[in-house]
Write a structure and sequence with these properties.
The chain has 2 domains: 45 residues, no CATH class; 255 residues, Alpha-Beta Barrel (TIM Barrel), CATH 3.20.20.70. Helices cover 36% and strands 19% of the residues. Strands 1-2-3-7-8-9-12-13-14 form a 9-stranded mixed β-sheet, covered by helices on one side. Strands 4-6-5 form a 3-stranded antiparallel β-sheet. A two-stranded antiparallel sheet has the order 10-11.
Length: 313
């Protein structure tokens, strides 16, 4: 680029182009001086950089619910989300850099989990057939106490300080009525607040729960969402590409969570374990959006593709 100061300096040397030639050269590049041109150039650079200037992807995150848990994940990732029934915390190497998060289903009771048969049936107004679980009435005092004492407090006593709160939207399936949904949402907000208050220093990750963020977004360390580009359909038992409209909707929610509530975003996409190259391409696309990726199978019992596989931490 030719600036005025540079041009003045150039004119001082007789061996350089004449003043007329310099003016013609300057006119040719006059658009470079316009604000609009620089704005356009900046936008192009942002696109080429994968839009990462706009988002902080936050800590690298892995999810593994199987057994045994590969211990290298605790060396390679800053956060690891686990099914606590499959891990003893003293198994984790002393050199681990990872913050460990225990999975907790807040809105559903898993039928496979020990003690499920003892839970009163009146707590569960609906069923999620896709995952063979019972949808909870979040206003039921007994369910609230179960989450606080049997799930969170029990895991806290084991040494967990991070918790991944799942099934935050399940009440919408069991309660299609708007008034009932308002009551369920408020009960969920109160429960999350009580968890945060009762266990000082607790770290919470939310799986979606976008409608909760205005009231409890400041209590979260980050937000997670499944199925931005690829998903798993439990009904058909097939991997599928996410519909463009659904992707656009989710992308807007994730951007809002990041911008308005300053929450790092992690995206979990689902692809067959034998399609590692496609999973890597998908992870790179997620990173380009400014998010942390984890691409794996729906059971999350196979090591997926994350930022460590892309040479990032």
């Amino acid at each position: 680029m030719v600036s005025r100061n540079r041009s003045t300096h150039l004119h001082a040397a007789s061996s350089f182009p004449t003043e007329g030639a310099t003016r013609r050269f300057s006119r040719r590049f006059e658009p470079l001086r316009s604000k609009e041109w620089w704005v356009s150039l900046f936008n192009v650079c942002v696109v080429l950089a994968g839009c990462r200037l706009w988002f902080d992807p936050g800590p690298s995150t892995a999810f593994f619910y199987g057994h045994p848990i590969p211990l290298e994940l605790f060396q390679e990732y800053e956060r690891v989300v686990v099914e606590a029934d499959n891990l003893e915390l003293d198994q984790i190497p002393d050199t681990s850099k990872a913050q460990v998060f225990a999975y907790v289903s807040v809105g559903e009771a898993e039928r496979w989990r020990a003690g499920h048969e003892e839970l009163p049936r009146q707590w569960f107004p609906g069923v999620n057939p896709n995952w063979n679980s019972d949808i909870a009435d979040l206003t039921a005092p007994g369910w609230r106490n179960y989450i606080l004492t049997q799930r969170v407090a029990s895991l806290w006593d084991q040494g967990y300080r991070g918790f991944f709160l799942d099934t935050l939207n399940s009440y919408q399936i069991a309660y299609p009525d708007l008034a009932a949904q308002v009551a369920q949402k408020q009960a969920l907000v109160n429960l999350i607040r009580e968890i945060h208050q009762r266990f000082p220093g607790i770290q919470l990750l939310f799986n979606r729960g976008f409608e909760l963020l205005p009231e409890v977004g400041d209590l979260a360390e980050g937000i997670v969402a499944e199925s931005l580009y690829y998903t798993w359909d439990p009904a058909s038992q097939r991997y599928e590409e996410v519909d463009e409209k659904d992707r656009a909707w989710l992308l807007e929610r994730l951007r809002e969570a990041n911008r308005r509530y300053n929450l790092p975003v992690t995206v979990i996409d689902y692809l067959p374990p034998d399609q590692r190259e496609l999973a890597r391409e998908d992870a790179e696309r997620i990173v380009a959006m400014g998010f942390t990726p984890w691409v794996a199978n729906p059971a999350l019992d196979v090591v997926g593709v994350g930022r460590a596989d892309l040479g990032e931490q």
